[in-house]
């Protein structure tokens, strides 16, 4: 509310059912935005005045003052000596007035603090230290015997004008409570200096309530003020399986973590501050199989010491390839887009052209993500978590000056792709090959078959090109062989020329010694 354009906000402890600690927090929050916090007291009691001003209130509203003596008692409670008898000591009041020193606060407090009254007129208006005569029309109407039941009684309207005039004639300000914008405009035109439209939870406009909230949907994370604003997100949980990464709610699967974070959201809905991702059903408990029996002892031919049969050693899995190195800094000749986000892992800071680049602090993870037996973390630091959302929130462990928004940029012209991942399976009559390359330009892709080779020229729609010639392990029938371009790969069907079983695809590939299964392969 304090950021919605108001000049001051009144914290109502008379009718607002606000506790002392709530008043303290509200005053500090309002003052932090540069807006003046005013506290409406429950009664004209000295200890209430002290509590409100010591929290840092810029002014107080004292209700139901009937005489000039009531006004003088209020001034004594609110002002420091020699004007009043208020004690000094609270640090909160200085914090809410811009962080001034204690001496500065004492020097200006008696002049700056506002004391507002809500009843008796000419005599009260003459009391030194009273700054504003503030009218509560409902209390005033009750005291005059003409309660507000609809339109104001003419006696009440006359009393309101009399109070306004008394304030102006004595060099004071006039204020009034009202309901709604039309009444506020009416009293402003009448000459009231401070107009207080009722802003309880029942009357706050929808504009005031539109405080920025952060969407918790996966793939979104935007701050929003309009609950009806479209939200593009992933409704399903992340899926990591056999090196592939993706989202359960959509089909794309990628190999690197950076590609996973770049998968576009698949669902359009409304922003939310509540995580509504479906909970994965628990898998039924699986009984552990009984341990295998110990290998039988095989006697040696010469009747010596028995020996245990030893199975062949299993080669350890290959170490994961290191993440591609990122450039150390942005190329200063490249323009940074307005919506750019830092490319370093774990940072996600947005580009702000008003902030000097030399003052940017990039807190990030220089390592690569690690997912092992359910735990998730980064290779550069020790902390491990179980939930993917917690993993995304792990704070960076390294800091650099300047974020990385664009890097070194791409060299001009077409980018050459040196290698692509391939896989194949075979039947008695054909070899089926998959070459994994995204965004192949279907209209310009060229594949030439000969009896012993295939020549590939595969441009992509993102300005890349892969060219190579594969010398095949065995001859094929070039007339019957064919290819098909898909979204993420090229599929080749090579018709065998002699029915030979292929242990490898290319004649220059190293033989692994494995037997290649002949038959129909399943699809993952």
UniProtKB/TrEMBL annotation:
Which residue intervals are annotated with compositional bias (Acidic residues) in the record? 325-334
Instruction: Provide a Gene Ontology MF annotation, just one.
Output: metal ion binding
* Region ranges (Disordered): 271-338
Q: Which organism is it from?
A: Aspergillus ellipticus CBS 707.79
Keyword terms = Metal-binding, Pyruvate, Repeat, Zinc
Q: What is this protein called?
A: Phosphoenolpyruvate/pyruvate domain-containing protein
Q: Which residues form a coiled coil?
A: none
According to the entry, every stretch annotated as the CHORD domain falls at 215-271, 342-403
Question: Does the UniProt entry include the keyword Kinase?
Answer: no
Domain CS, residue spans = 417-506
């Amino acid at each position: 509310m304090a950021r919605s354009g108001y000049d001051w906000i009144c914290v109502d402890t008379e009718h607002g059912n606000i506790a002392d600690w709530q008043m303290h927090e509200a005053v500090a929050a309002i003052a932090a935005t540069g807006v003046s916090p005013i506290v409406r007291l429950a009664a004209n009691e000295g200890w209430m005045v002290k509590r409100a001003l010591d929290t840092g209130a810029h002014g107080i509203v004292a209700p139901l003052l009937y005489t000039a003596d009531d006004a003088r008692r209020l001034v004594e409670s609110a002002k420091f000596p020699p004007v009043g008898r208020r004690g000094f000591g609270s640090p909160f009041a200085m914090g809410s007035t811009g962080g001034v020193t204690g001496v500065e606060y004492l020097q200006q407090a008696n002049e700056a603090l506002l004391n507002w009254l809500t009843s008796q007129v000419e005599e009260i208006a003459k009391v030194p230290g009273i700054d504003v005569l503030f009218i509560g029309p409902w209390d005033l109407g009750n005291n005059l015997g003409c309660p507000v039941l609809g339109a104001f009684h003419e006696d009440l309207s006359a009393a309101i004008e009399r109070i306004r005039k008394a304030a102006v004639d004595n060099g004071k300000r006039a204020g009034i409570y009202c309901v709604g914008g039309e009444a506020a405009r009416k009293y402003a035109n009448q000459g009231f200096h401070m107009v207080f439209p009722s802003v309880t939870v029942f009357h706050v406009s929808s504009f005031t309530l539109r405080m920025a909230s952060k969407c918790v949907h996966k793939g979104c994370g935007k701050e929003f003020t309009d609950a009806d604003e479209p939200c593009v997100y992933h409704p399903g949980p992340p899926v990591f399986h056999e090196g592939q990464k993706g989202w359960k709610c959509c089909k794309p699967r990628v190999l690197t973590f950076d590609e996973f974070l770049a998968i576009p959201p698949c669902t359009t809905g409304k922003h939310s501050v509540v995580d509504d991702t479906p909970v994965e059903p628990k898998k039924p408990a699986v009984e552990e199989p009984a341990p295998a029996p110990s290998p039988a002892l095989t006697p040696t031919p010469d009747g010596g010491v028995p020996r245990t049969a030893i199975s062949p050693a299993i080669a350890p899995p290959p170490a994961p390839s290191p993440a591609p190195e990122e450039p150390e800094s942005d190329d200063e000749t490249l323009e940074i887009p307005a919506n750019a986000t830092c490319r370093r892992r774990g940072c996600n800071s947005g580009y702000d052209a008003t902030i000097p680049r030399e003052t940017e602090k990039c807190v990030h993870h220089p390592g690569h993500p690690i997912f092992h037996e359910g735990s998730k973390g980064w290779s550069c630091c020790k902390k491990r978590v179980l939930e993917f959302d917690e993993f995304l929130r792990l704070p960076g462990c390294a800091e650099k000056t300047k974020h990385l928004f664009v890097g070194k940029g791409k060299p001009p012209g077409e980018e050459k792709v040196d290698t692509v991942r391939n896989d194949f399976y075979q039947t008695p009559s054909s070899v089926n090959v998959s070459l994994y390359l995204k965004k192949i330009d279907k209209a310009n892709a060229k594949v030439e078959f000969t009896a012993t080779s295939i020549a590939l020229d595969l441009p992509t729609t993102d300005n890349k090109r892969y060219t190579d010639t594969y010398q095949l392990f065995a001859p094929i029938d070039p007339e019957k062989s064919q290819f098909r371009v898909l979204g993420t790969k090229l599929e080749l069907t090579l018709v065998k020329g002699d029915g030979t079983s292929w242990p490898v695809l290319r004649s220059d590939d190293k033989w692994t010694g494995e037997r290649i299964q002949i038959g129909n392969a399943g699809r993952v």
